[in-house]
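Late entry, flavin-adenine dinucleotide complex.
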Amino acid sequence: MVNNAPQNASQVLVLVGAGHANVALIRRFAMEPLVGTRLVVVNPDSVTPYSGMLPGFLSGQYREDELFIDIGRLCKQAGARLIRGSLEHVDTDLRRLSIRHQVGFHQAELQIDFDICVLNTGAIPGHDFPTMHPHYYPVKPIRELLTALPQIDQQMSRDGASIVVVGGGAAGIELAFAFRTRFGSAACVTLISKRPFEADAALSAAAKAIRRVLVDRGITCIESQAVVEAAADSVVLSDGRSVAADVICAATTVHPQTGFLTQHFLPSKGFLQ
Ligand SMILES: Cc1cc2nc3c(=O)[nH]c(=O)nc-3n(C[C@H](O)[C@H](O)[C@H](O)COP(=O)(O)OP(=O)(O)OC[C@H]3O[C@@H](n4cnc5c(N)ncnc54)[C@H](O)[C@@H]3O)c2cc1C
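Prediction complete; structure with ligand written out below:
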């Protein structure tokens, strides 16, 4: 059990997850500490990849070390305690978190009491279609995609190899461009979007320009078609067509990771009650 009762702090604020959302909070805390509040951050790693730079990294604009935010350093600046571990269980009655804590190469169970807890453990693409493809990679968690990158590069190393990006939101579009740059003009890059770009409020104004640049870069774009299945070497579309795929990268609609939530704390339409 971690005794979080600091000498001069009246409440303990625990941030679970140190991705985009909580990094902004830690940074804010570093600039303007909350008097009387002790900050504790729980995250599996002491660095976190910055998704906004992932396409730039994949296309060679950034080095891998530039892609990561140093959470340890940020926590030091904010006077926060960083606990390397994963949340496994929330007891809302006792206001207690159970953490699988990483100590060197070993793992231990740790309990942390909190006054306020902020959960931002991110989201991952859902299983929108069945897949038996051996090289199917969701874009998130980004760390897992980065770990798989040597296999992806290997698959894409022969001329004419094909990669299919599933998901026509901003992330999918950026990834398609990044893969085109990474794998060169000999590769077949296909972007598949369930809806036309106009249906996405964030993209509609730029829809025509996006299509034009996709064509310029030799990226095949298939809109208004859902992937219904991934076979061993292709994806099958809702109209029955097959598109060859040596690699599939899924940037489809994301869902919260809620394995640690109990019946006391059920997610409601993607949000916590
Ligand atoms: C290719 C791509 C490009 C993008 N570009 C942009 C952009 O330019 N601008 C933008 O605003 N958004 C962008 N996004 C979207 C952005 O990534 C998400 O909106 C954002 O990451 C959500 O922040 P988050 O903190 O909720 O989750 P995340 O950033 O995913 O962070 C979650 C953190 O929680 C940790 N975690 C997970 N499970 C546990 C657990 N059980 N216990 C403790 N910690 C845990 C993870 O390790 C991770 O560090 C992009 C996404 C992609 C895929």
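The first strand starts at residue 11 and ends at 16. Will revisit in the morning.
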